[in-house]
Amino acid sequence: MMKPMRTTLTIQDDLAAxxxxxxxxxxxxFKAALNHLLxxxxxxxxxxxxxxxxxTPTRKLGLRPGIDPTRLNALLDDLETGDFAGRES
Length: 89
Prior knowledge:
The structure is a single chain. The protein has helices at 13-26, 30-46, 72-88. By secondary structure, the protein is an all-alpha fold. α1 (13-26) packs across α2. The longest helix has 17 residues, at 30-46. The model has no long low-confidence stretch (mean pLDDT 86).
């Protein structure tokens, strides 16, 4: 077990007020509140964040009537074949 370390900190006023509010709310000493917050901060930085689920929004394609979106690859093949056939002549 490590020996406790004593040090001097300069804490900004807004942060000191938040620590004081936590101290009063939880009934802790200033030292206990500060150690609790430091422990939470170190743990949060060492644990990887949980990945958020991402969903791609769906949209209507707005294709003209008669165009089958499941056959777009076949249409592309036909176009490529036509281009290839046209270059040989």
